[in-house]
Amino acid sequence: MSEGFKAQWPMDLGAPEGSLEAKQPRPANIGKDVVDPARYYSREFMNAEWEYLWPKVWLLAGVTSDIRDAGDFTVFTHGHEQFLITRTHDGDIRAFYNVCPHRGNRVCLTDHGSVRQFSCPFHGWTFNLDGTLAGITDEHTYDPDLIRHRPGLGEVRCDTAGGLIFINMDGEAPPLKDWIGLPPGYIENYEIEHMNVVRHVRSEWLANWKTGVDAFYETYHLPHIHPQTQGVMEDYSQVDLYPNGFSRMIVPIGVKSHRVGDQDNLDPYQVAFLAEAGVDPDSFKGTPRDVRPAIQKAKRERGKQFGLDYYDRLTDGQLTDSWATGYFPNVQIGMHPEGVFIMRFTPHATDPERFYYDNITMFRYVDDPGFTVPAWMGLPEGTDVSGEIRPEVEHVPAGVNPELGEVLDQDVELVAAVQEGVKSRGFNGPLWCEQEDRLRHFHRELDRYLSGGA
Fold this sequence. Notes:
Elements: H1 43-52, E1 59-63, E2 72-78, E3 81-87, E4 93-97, E5 112-114, E6 118-119, E7 126-127, E8 133-135, E9 155-161, E10 164-168, H2 176-179, E11 196-205, H3 209-216, H4 222-225, E12 238-241, E13 247-251, H5 268-276, H6 288-305, H7 316-320, E14 322-327, E15 331-335, E16 339-347, E17 355-363, E18 394-396, H8 406-421, H9 437-450
Parallel strand pairs: 11-18
Antiparallel strand pairs: 1-10, 2-3, 2-5, 3-4, 4-9, 6-7, 7-8, 9-10, 11-17, 12-13, 13-14, 14-15, 15-16, 16-17
């Protein structure tokens, strides 16, 4: 393996102190609480979240590449609330409740699109891109006092960070830049604003949204649920905790798990990853330990070949590894130089044992056959990755396989089984080990909100 990399716990990739890749010290007060499992199925806990959590946090609502031009819009649904995010003629990004002030009808009924102005399909009231009222059908039939305030779309706070769009329903929440707990440049260095959504699947899962978050916040389960990953991915991850509930795990890719006995012969997945990076596997003379640095070197050279200047701001580790980053409370983004993999866990409006899982794959297109789509994206064959057309959202109901790839399909079954188990009289609460520190960090921040401490 490359210098500074050793698979032992606690996992530390050996990056220089002060760099974005550096291991963060484990908090001394992280605790060893065992939380009440009722949080995963209690309706009272769900109601508390709707009152004290969701209205107060910044929620990932979309990506800027979906609304590049004036009039472009995207719709974001969160439980019983729905938001309309659009780009105005001035180039600003604004967000509104997707509700007509006349009778409460949804103004936009599609996931995304482009318009000159918004028109409610119920009675034809129209609104400008900045949310102001444009026209009332048969206005002369209204008492002037009733509409004297010129009712427009209800606006919510909206801000962006590195190509990501966030909204906030609380006027007293801190600004987005102060709320994001990640170091400066962490998001921006990937240039997500230059990536395009190439697939978006929204599936309904039979579990609490936190059961979903928990499942993706650790790699402790990899050798048992996803044994096929051991030939090209280390099970131990470098776990780092940041302020405001943010966290990450750096998952080393291109290496064999330390649990694999054969460390001398290349795994078929390693061979495929070498070829994907532009390294001829037949002429490669290294061992499995040399694959990761070889891929890093090849990608560094490829970045220069294609004029990808932002590669210069990424460490060698970022060129291979997944920086699986948790954005409190309900988003994880697998960050890679070629693209990002957004997971959003959205609560059901009324049922604490259902949630919606948004799986959004973004790719930075380069018009050259040498720059290929990474295999980790798991895109169906024939997927258009040019970014010219934003694909429709694929809506998948509960109980239907969303076909997200072999690994994620295994997680669908796992999460449903966990949800059933947490309700058992025989389960007294999760016993989180150090590999699951991100879960403990996440739940402590959640409890801080519910106790009124945020």
